[in-house]
Amino acid sequence: MIFGIIALIIGVLVLAVGIYSLKQEKDDPESRKIYTIAAVIGAAVALVGVIRLVLTLL
Asked: Taken in order 43, 44, 45, 46, is the CA torsion positive or negative?
């Protein structure tokens, strides 16, 4: 349960920072790639956290 909560928090934070940085560096194509990848990784980690929490509660 703790692992799921920590993964969810970290994933949401990485996703938020990736989206924020993506908006800040919208003119640089290379930065857009990097921050898009960071946002996708954050979303994946958050999704794993949610799945882990749901499976723990069942």
From this structure: positive
pTM of the model: 0.89
pLDDT digits (tens, 9 = 90+) for 3-46: 999 999 999 999 999 999 999 998 999 999 999 999 999 999 99
Structure tokens at 2: 């703790």
Burial class (CB in 10 A: 0-12, 13-18, 19+), 29: exposed
In 3D space, the residue among 2, 36, 45, 44 whose CA is nearest the CA of residue 17 turns out to be 36
